[in-house]
Specification:
41% of the residues lie in helices and 20% in strands. It contains 18 helices and 16 strands. The chain is globular, with a radius of gyration of 24 Å. Bound molecules: 3-methyl-2-oxobutanoic acid and zinc ion. Zinc ion binds at residues 20, 175, 177, 208, 210, 521.
Amino acid sequence: MTTADTNKDRVYIFDTTLRDGEQSPGATMTLEEKLQVAEMLDDMGVDIIEAGFPIASNGDFEAVAEVAKRSKNAIIAGLARAIPADIARAGEAVRFARQGRIHTFVSTSPIHLAHQMKKTEEQVLEIISATVAQARNLIDNVEWSAMDATRTPIDFLARCVELAIKAGATTINLPDTVGYAVPEEHGAMFRAIIERVPGADKVIFSSHCHNDLGLAVANSLAAVKAGARQVECTINGLGERAGNAALEEIVMALRTRGDAMPYHTNIETTHLSRASKIVSAAANFPVQYNKAIVGKNAFAHESGIHQDGMLKNAETYEIMTPASVGIKETTLVMGKHSGRAAFKDKLRELGYELGDNAFQEAFVRFKDLADRKKHIYDADIVALVDDEAGSIDDRIKLVDMEVVSKTGGIHRCDMTVTIDGEKTTVSYDGTGSVDAIFNAIKQAVGLDPHLVLYAVDGVTGGTDAQASAHVRLEHNGRIASGNAAEPDTLVASARAYLNAVNRLLIERGAAAQGAMESAAS
Ligand code: KIV
Ligand code: ZN
């Protein structure tokens, strides 16, 4: 897909979970996690995977290059500012792909030109011609984005797009960078540019919407109606601030309302539920219960009238079936007598292929869980495999903890951890049990991070359900998230907190990350 496709109703899905999504505070993923997400996106039929921002750090470069090497079908894109070194680095990273793409962008709105870029319109036009031509000399597949397009006067935007096309861009992206647009005007912008810019029929137009006003999906669909044939989106709507347009919502809206929007994508929708879980676990980002398509409650019918209707005919209240997005009834799976082969089969059925060491580790934890919990459901297995707290590389590990909590009295936590292999025991009081646990950890590790988020959720129903705990911490401008699942809520909370602290201690090319954050949103 380098020039406009002959199939005029096909909408290409460009997933930027690994780039715009991963830029979301606290959503940093490890290389392994990025590879797992990329493989899942490729398998579900995503057309273009934006795998990262290669100039941002060596880690980002390595991730884009590795995703590119492993890609089976998808085009792999690397992001680059309109700077020669960025473009060269992106070209180097994506050259390993079956088909690579350089995605280069520059701001076009008056407010960005005046305050961020400190450049005139004429200078921006020269930059566009030079940088798109540089990218096009490296690779046949070049996307150019007009950052803050929706706040750019249409005449200037048209001049920019015309030059980008002349310089060799094959895809033109008009982002709503700050989530400011409303659907009618977003559609009108695409219509105007497509109608008046010479060469518009030779390229694919793309929409990239942020969700600051909750309109990202509506704006993306308006762009499609107006002629855009690529939509940039993320799983679970992950992304800066209020996030990006959610892939699962766009895909299911197009599929469910084909009568109103006669367009189609290549996405295998039965993968959507699993994709949501994988990204939520990798990015340590819980999905809100009532999130459309993939939220826990998306297909739950609570009210009596709804339940009555559903029992008589599911279509009375259900516009999509849970099966169409891959939601299966959570089933009772195994108990403590289940062996390795059964566990491996179950993992395969749930979509996990673990290497020997990871499998052995997961099996030991499954046996341990089965000793403590009578009924084990699919969701328990998923939580167990996705729980990364306590990995071998962690500098700080929980050895033991004891919590005393008395109504109207003390709340104390005695805890032993190892730090780089050395044992430390601390005792700390708090206003409640969780406060005492978190204080004890802070004392043991000598860090005082700010707690940004703490949430606990039951993995399944019932009082013996595992608790899944999420913690997000901020320390010296860095944000890290952690999660853990355990039958005991307090132990899950402690392990999630430690998981976040361990992630805070993993250094990431800080200077490069700063550059990335100021340049792209
Ligand atoms: O939101 C935005 O404008 C971006 C560009 C880098 C495409 O993410
Ligand atoms: Zn963006």
